[in-house]
Design brief:
The chain has a domain of 32 residues. It is built from two helices and no strands.
């Protein structure tokens, strides 16, 4: 016999208000229509990505300025003496 158990996951959320310029709200609504997602979902996702982004794990390269080589020239660093 096969059966399905449905256990809804309830996430507590608080309602808030955000003031946006007309062009910001228009852009959000356009992105919502294109993606098929709600404006609220897009805002929550943006907050997660910009504010709640996880700290980088593992080795991270840090540099400043323009790269001196292209990625295809990676091994050329060993040609310089």
């Amino acid at each position: 016999m096969t059966y399905v158990i449905f256990r809804p996951k309830v996430t507590y959320m608080e309602k808030t208000q955000v003031y946006l310029r007309k062009e910001e709200l228009a852009a959000l609504r356009e992105a919502s229509a294109r993606s098929g997602r709600s404006v609220a979902d897009l805002v929550r996702d943006a907050i997660r990505k910009a504010v709640l982004k996880p700290l980088a794990a593992g080795p991270v390269a840090i540099w400043d300025g323009e790269p001196k080589r292209r990625s295809v020239d990676h091994d050329s660093v060993h040609d310089e003496t």
